[in-house]
Design a protein that fits this description.
Elements: H1 3-40, H2 47-54, H3 58-71, H4 78-88, H5 94-105, H6 111-125, E1 129-131, H7 133-138, E2 141-144, E3 150-153, E4 158-160, H8 176-189, H9 195-201
Helix pairs in contact: 1-2, 1-3, 3-5, 4-6, 5-6, 6-8, 6-9, 8-9
Amino acid sequence: MTIRLILAAMITLSCCVSSIGRAQSAHDKDCDKAAKTIQKGHPAHKLTAALNTLSGCGALGGQTTASAVQDTRLETDTTALEQFYTIADMWRDASVMQAAINLAQDAGASTQARVYAVRHLLGVVRPRSIFRYGNLVRGNVTTVAADSTIAIRPGCRESSVGSVPALVGSQLPPDYQVRIRDLLASLASSSSSDVRLQNAAKCG
């Protein structure tokens, strides 16, 4: 290769590295801005967009989403929780998983928030399944027809999806399935748990 070709290649590489650096810098700024929006909790109309941005932010995205999971602990509005977890459930991440475990165990949190935390954990161990809040909290429903026919409608109905959540900031621990199933078994059998939480945990 001639000196001229080497110099041309070096110039081309320099330009590419510079462009990548600028793009990475802009990306990092977007991630930092989104994280700050989530941490502050406002402006409200930008929270969903910030969560979407964090989906491409690796470890920072996972850690910030985990913090947001904890921040939902007193939320009772299932519409708001559904919107949040539609994005949060895309993560298969150790930080988000641990935040959901902590929330599910938090006796001072709202039952609705704890059920959604359980839903996230169910999705971690069964990633090709989608669970609906209404089905989780209802439990099995038994009806008796006029002809005495008994019908049982299971509460843990789920939908199947073709792909699994793919957002990872930090890898799940090797024993994640055991930890989650042990927690769900404990919640399902606890007499102090709200029946809605018990029903959701039984789906594990």
